Structures are given as C-alpha cells and as structure tokens.
Amino acid sequence: MKKQHTFHIPVMGTAFTADTPLKVSRFGIDSVIALADDVLLERLRKVYAEKNDLEYEEIKNNTKDYRADRITSYLNLVNKLAAQKYDEYTTATKEKVESLKTFFASFPDSSQLKKEFNNLTDFNLDDISEWLKENLNMGSIDVNIMTKVDKPNFFKNEALPSEYNDAHSALRGYANSDLASSIIFSAGMNPRLYGYISQFDDFFPNADGHIKKKIVIKVSDYRSALIQGKFLAKKGLWVSEYRIESGLNCGGHAFATDGYLMGPILSEFKEKRKELISEVFAICKEALKTNNKLVPEHPLALRITAQGGVGTAEEHDFLIKYYNLDSVGWGTPFLLVPEVTTVDDTTRAQLIQAKEKDLYLSNVSPLGVPFNNLRNASKEVEKWDKVEKGKPGSSCPRRYLAFSKEYDEKGVCTASRLYQKNKIEEQGISKKITDKVCLCMGLSAASVVSNNIETRESKAVSICPGPNMAYFDKLLSLEDMTKHIYGLESFMSRADRPNMFVKELNLYMDYLKNKFDEAKSDWDKKQEKYFNRFLENMNDGVAYYNNLFEHLKNKYGETKEDTLAHLEKTKSKLSAITLEIEALAEVPAAS
C-alpha cells in the first residue's frame, strides 16, 4: 500500500525517538528507534508494560545474549501496542469522526485520501471504518544501528565471538523480532556486520519481491551508495532505500563530506536512479541464484529519500517534486512536538530559546566525530562542574563507546574518568581531553527524566539538534507540525532563515575555514591535495546552485535574489582560500 505521508521522522539520539512509533505509527507516519542502548529499551519495556497492564519479567544482564533479547522483547512490545492503537484508530465511532476530520485537515488539499474522506463523512460508521482499514496503513516501525558502534563483548571475562559485538547483537535483536519494517545502517560501512545480515531469512525477497525486513543505508553521496549496494547485493541482499543525509546541516553526529553539497548529490541520484537499480539488481539476482534463494522476476523496489535542514513546506515540496524523492525526513523541529518525541521539560525550554550561537558543532563525542550540541545543556554543565572540582570524566556504566585500548584491553571510553585521569597525568589537563562527554548516559537521560525512572545514575541531558532549531521557537502539536510541512500553516519563527541549501553551504564554508586554519601550521602536499579537492567540490556546488536558482520559476521568489548574491560572495571566499593555498605551496618545505 502506498504511504500516506511524504515525510518521515528520522532517528534522534537514543531516547528522543525511542517510543515515537507508539505515538505516531497509527497516523501512518514512519519513525525510527535507535538500538544502541539496550538498558534504556529494557527500562521502557517495563514502563509501557505497566502502563498497559501487561506482564513484565526483567531480562537481566547475566546471559551471553541479553542485549539481543532485550531489543527483541522491546520491539515486539512496541509492535503489539502500535498495532492495537492502529486498530482502535481505524474503527470509527461517533466521537472519533471529529478527530479524524482534524487528522485529514492537516493533509495537503491535493491529497486524494483527504478528498475521499471528506466525501465519506455523510456515510455510516461501518462504511467509514471499512474505508479507513482499506486506505490507511500503519507507519513503519524502523530501527537504526550505527555500524561503527560495534564494540566486542565479554562474558565472565571471556571474549565472545563477533556475533555478540554491540551492533551484531542489535541486528540479531531486530532480526528475531516480529516487525516487518526497515533497518537503517548509518555511520559508514561495516563489512563484517553486513556479512552477518545474510544469516537471517527475513532480509531476503520472496518470489514476488516482497522483503519482510528491508535494508536502508544512510549515505552522504552516490558513490557510497553504489559501493555499499553492490557489497550487499553480492550476498543476495537488496538495499530498499538510500537515505541521503546532509553532511553538516543535520542533528547528531555530523559526517562531513569533502565539500560535496546536498543539491548536486540529490541531482546525481535523480539522474542515475535507473542505472543504480539495474546495475545492483543484476548482481543481487546472480547471488540469489548461486545461493539457491528465491529470485524475483522483476527488479526490486527502490526508494530514494533525503533529510537534513529542511524547514519549510516550499523546500519539502521542491525536494519531493524536483528530485523525485519518495520522502523527506523532518527531525530537529519535531523535538518541539511533545506528542512525538521524548524530551524533558527543562531541555525543551532551552531548545525554544536557542539561537544560532547556542547550536554548535562540538568535539564532545567519544567517537571522535563532530557532534551537534546545545550550549549549556545540563550534561555540559555537569561536565564542566566535574572539571572545576578536579574530578573530570564519567563513571562509564554502559561502555557502548569504550573503544580505546590504551588503559584496558577490554576498551575504555575517552569520556570516562579512567581515561581522562590517566591522560591528564601524562599530558596535563586540557580542553581536548576534558571536552569529551558521556553520550551513552546523556542521550538516554531525557527518557529517564520524562518517565520518572528510578536510578542513581546521572540524569543530566545531552541533546543534539541540527542548526534548523534556531528558526523554531514554540511548542507545537503534531497537527501543527503536519500542517507546517504540507504548507497549510507556517510556524517558522523568523523571516531571515536562509534557504536550506544556502545554510548547508555556510556550514561547509565555516568547516572549511576552520580546518584550513588548523592545517596551515603543518602544511604539506597531502594537505594541499585535500584542500584543493575540497575547494573544487565546493566550487562545483556553487556553480550548480547558481544554475539551479537562476532557472527556477515560481519558486523561492522572495529569497532567490538574496541567494544568488550570497553565492557570488561564497565564490569570492573560495577564491581567497585558493590564493592562500597557492601561496603556501610556494613556500619551501622546512629542512
């Protein structure tokens, strides 16, 4: 059945969308649960079991496979409860018809579903119920795994095989669940993890091409999609969706490209979509034959979606129609929708007040990847308070990011007290060491606070909104947000918000300038090659946007001239950096 919405809610942190499917799935909205924190998911299973008078038996951490078992049990509970909510929602009652009218009123006027429903309201309740069940569908309950968060594990001090690694266990937990949905892999390719997928039948197509558990790859460019798609196809596994995410204009961890910008990337996917399907399907089909699996007669379905910085209905509509996207992800603005995401009241109040200066790309992540951060979030305050008291670092109860083998062969997190104490003793105290924060606890704390979960652990919150948060400044309902996305009302708080492509371009200019300033003191041929490639990609992107905006008709009318003027200024800035690189290249290397 065709999806009824052209937007989806991406994964946000570990807690912020951990129970979002229970809130939005009945409305046909796809959302994503992070599988990183099995402790949080086990706690939420208890919360929702008690809320719904269901039996709950704790899955303790005293078996080899407790992590996978916790994930399976939580996903099965969410699936069961979401299905019940959907059945209730699609069973019309006299009282419910009014809420259904409100629901469909938030759809765009062009929606066929909206038109059909409005014609139905004079019919009897049985007719309405039958139509709802035939025409609506549950939003997909998808899950996310960061492929690199795949730490080895131990049981009774014995190293376990790789299938018990964190990401492998999470994959198994999803594979063993009742869900028919998608698993989204982010943060790059993990060949061993990808190979493990082939051990589960639910990821393979049947003769009709239906796949119960679909694979979605989050990518930053076309080349990455092709490489990962082919890798999986050689195992008979089909990537059902490529989810393109802006390198910098997004929330969470920021995986910056080498100057490749969103517009040109989307354009390449648009131009090569058929080529991508035929090339990868040919490999997949051959692998299915070789492995004696069912082989679909026709090429399998492929969705192309995108997310990162979209903030207006005009941008949403443009992305869908111009680039032929199947869906657009709206993340950060939903942090201000209590009906949808789990954020504690204090942090949500900070988000409402946040301006550009409060939203910054930080070095706090133990992964060593730039991380979007909110200035003065309670986890940041707690971190610096510990430093002032001479007790930097965290106790590290979860150990999901314990990758450093410097002080313990089982792994140590760079945000841990053990790591920072040793490192300070060796090198002296510095912000580079103490800046790291415990994201395992920080990103789950909002759910602990919001659900009044009893624990002695820190309840200080980390949150990772994208730059788009600066342009929203009030709490919104789901109805408000849906109307905003579809252009029925606007809840944008500021008129000076730049176009999403321009915003990303600005972020990349800042990123380039910072990296270039850092590199000058240690300049060599490798640096020169990197920055010249970065500049070439940026210049190509600016030229693409110049051509795009000059030829757009009846789009971005009020901001088009400002955008074109901004592009000219950016070209000048890029030229200035090019001249600096040429000057550095002429300086003789130190002997």
Short key terms for the protein model shown above:
single chain; alpha/beta; TIM Barrel; eight-stranded parallel β-sheet; 46% helix
Explain how this protein is built.
The protein is globular, with a radius of gyration of 25 Å. Strand 9 (about 305), helix 11 and strand 10 form a beta-alpha-beta unit. It is an alpha/beta fold and about 600 residues long. Helix 2 (about 40-50) crosses helix 3 (about 65-90) and helix 19 runs antiparallel to helix 20 (about 525-550). It is built from 21 helices and 12 strands. The chain folds into 4 domains: about 5-90 and about 140-335, TIM Barrel; about 90-135, no CATH class; about 380-460, no CATH class; about 500-585, Topoisomerase I, Chain A, domain 4 (Orthogonal Bundle).
SSE layout and pairing:
Elements: E1 7-8, H1 20-24, E2 31-34, H2 38-51, H3 66-89, H4 94-105, H5 112-120, H6 125-135, E3 141-146, E4 154-155, E5 158-159, H7 166-175, E6 182-186, H8 191-197, E7 214-219, H9 222-233, E8 239-245, H10 262-290, E9 303-307, H11 313-322, E10 327-329, H12 345-353, E11 359-362, E12 371-374, H13 378-388, H14 417-427, H15 431-434, H16 439-442, H17 445-450, H18 478-485, H19 500-519, H20 525-551, H21 560-586
**Overall 3D form:** globular
Overall number of structural domains: 4
CATH architectural label of the largest domain: Alpha-Beta Barrel
Number of helices: 21
The first-to-last residue Cα distance is: 68 Å
Give the strand tally: 12
Question: What fold name stands as the CATH topology of the largest domain?
Answer: TIM Barrel
CATH class of the largest domain: Alpha Beta
How would a crystallographer describe the biggest sheet? 8 strands, parallel
* Sheet/helix structural class: alpha/beta
